[in-house]
Amino acid sequence: MVNAAAKAVINRLLGYLGLHLTRTSQVPSWESLFGVLTRQNFHPQTVFDIGVAEGTPELYAAYPEAEFHLIDPTKESLPYMEAISRRINARIYNLALGDAETEQVIITRQDIFGASFFEEQGGASDVTGRYVVKVKRFDTLFREFMRPSLCKIDAQGAEAVIIRGMEGAIGKIDILVVEISVIATVVGGPEAAEVIAMLDGMDFKIYDIISLRRRPLDGALAQIDLVFVPDKSPLRSDHRWRDH
Asked: Over its length of 244 residues, how does the chain's per-residue pLDDT go in tens digits?
């Protein structure tokens, strides 16, 4: 075990390389979340992957027995979803989610993960196309599903409208993972305070952090993946700091 003095020396040396020594348990990650959930005996039977792009392999590997719903509106993501569905128990929905049944123009970019309904702040030089996609409400599309359930949302600025469209079914979601912008880099996109306040109004509380992303412009923190659970969830029923 590395003691405090040794750790300080190592960190000082690593600092010259722009590195820092820390415990892996303190680093936000899917693996850290899965470890906590396993210790709490939480094993979802239904998993929603909203905003698939090329996929979320961590989720598929962690819960191979779950029924997955893969949701992404882009033509570019469809081949990935089809390939994923051949490896796991998954249903594919090549459409967008929102707060109304409608159609909307999506903007695609060179990076498949960058597809969005929103223009990028300052304009973007990597736009590859624009086309109309169908938009459905989550609570219309998914009326009944097995629990416990886990839902991941990564929609490049559309997170708030997706959550509004979940209102009639959100009481059946046991864990909600949402990408949230600390600095909104798309025009009209919601920032962290708005999304957190919205979910707080739906009785969801922050439970964990699984990733942090800094923007290449200046290294400022721009996005975080937050985990939310219902206020009365068994996962947050024990408020002790340690087991005495």
From this structure: 456 666 566 656 656 666 555 555 567 899 999 999 999 999 999 999 999 999 999 999 999 999 999 999 999 999 999 999 999 999 999 999 999 999 999 998 888 887 888 888 887 678 889 999 999 999 999 999 999 999 999 988 899 999 999 999 999 999 999 999 999 888 888 999 999 999 999 999 999 999 999 999 999 999 999 999 999 999 999 999 988 7
Residue 173 contacts residue 148 (beta carbons within 8 Å):
no
Q: Does residue 210 form part of some domain? A: yes
Length of the chain in terms of residues written: 244
Radius of gyration of the chain (CA): 19
Q: What is the DSSP string of 50-108?
A: ES-TT--HHHHHH-TTSEEEEE---TTTHHHHHHHHTTSSEEEE-SEEESSSEEEEEEE
- Residue 208 within any structural domain of the chain: yes
Residue 116 lies in a domain: yes
Give the total number of structural domains in the chain: 1
CATH number (domain holding residue 32): 3.40.50.150
220, part of any domain = yes
Domain encompassing residue 28: 17-235
Say if pTM beats, i.e. exceeds, 0.85: yes
